[in-house]
């Protein structure tokens, strides 16, 4: 079994299915789910989350948390999933805070590197004085879904 940042890991996503997860996230967004919901729903079954629970726990994080345009909903969704990831849990299946923080920071840094930021209003090009072209939310959703999949494969 390959090593991860945190030692041995369980496979909950096969490399071959990452693009399917990305497409699930894109389709969810196209169907009207917000960015956070789309990312969480793409991996809900992998982490043992019921679809209804996944929707309810992520709904308010869209639009940079309740459309306040702060932390991107994709980043919030990834952070929500952290505690459900087996490699981030202790021997009693409880979330290990430091492992969750490390995993979240690592993926947030990768997202920032690929997308240029983790703040919704800057990613969307709507912050006052922002000269950066806006990134489509659906592409941000796809990027985060891919990054999560790669970290779990």
Strand content: under 5%
What structural class results from the helix and strand content? mainly alpha
What pattern of helices and strands is seen along the backbone?
Answer: EEHHHHHHH
Helix fraction, binned, reads 40-55%
Most strands sheet: 2 strands, antiparallel
Low-confidence parts, pLDDT < 50 over ≥5 residues? Answer: 1-9
Number of helices: 7
Radius of gyration over all CA atoms, rounded:
15 Å
What is the general shape? Answer: globular
Major β-sheet strand ordering: 1-2
List the helices and strands and how they pair.
Blueprint: E1 3-4, E2 7-8, H1 18-30, H2 35-43, H3 51-58, H4 73-82, H5 97-115, H6 120-123, H7 137-152
Antiparallel strand pairs: 1-2
Textual characterization of the structure:
The protein has about 150 residues and is mainly alpha-helical. The chain is about 50% helix and about 5% strand. It has 7 helices and 2 strands, in the order ββααααααα. The protein has a two-stranded antiparallel sheet with strand order 1-2. A hairpin with a 2-residue loop joins β1 and β2. α1 packs antiparallel against α2, α2 runs antiparallel to α3 and α4 runs antiparallel to α5. The longest helix is centred in the last third of the chain and has 19 residues. It starts with a strand and ends with a helix. The N terminus is likely disordered.
Short description:
The chain is mostly helical. The chain has helices at residues 18-30, 35-43, 51-58, 73-82, 97-115, 120-123, 137-152, and strands spanning 3-4, 7-8.
């Amino acid at each position: 079994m390959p090593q991860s940042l945190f030692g041995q890991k369980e496979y909950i996503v096969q490399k071959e299915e990452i693009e399917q997860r990305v497409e699930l996230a894109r389709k969810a967004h196209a169907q009207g789910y917000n960015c956070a919901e789309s990312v969480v729903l793409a991996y809900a079954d992998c982490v043992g989350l019921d679809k209804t629970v996944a929707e309810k726990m992520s709904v308010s994080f869209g639009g940079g948390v309740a459309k306040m345009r702060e932390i991107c909903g994709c980043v919030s969704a990834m952070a929500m999933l952290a505690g459900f990831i087996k490699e981030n849990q202790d021997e009693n299946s409880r979330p290990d805070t430091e492992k969750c923080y490390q995993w979240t920071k690592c993926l947030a840094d990768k997202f920032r590197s690929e997308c240029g930021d983790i703040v919704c209003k800057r990613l969307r090009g709507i912050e006052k004085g922002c000269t950066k072209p806006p990134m489509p939310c659906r592409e941000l959703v796809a990027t985060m879904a891919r990054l999560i999949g790669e970290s779990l494969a």
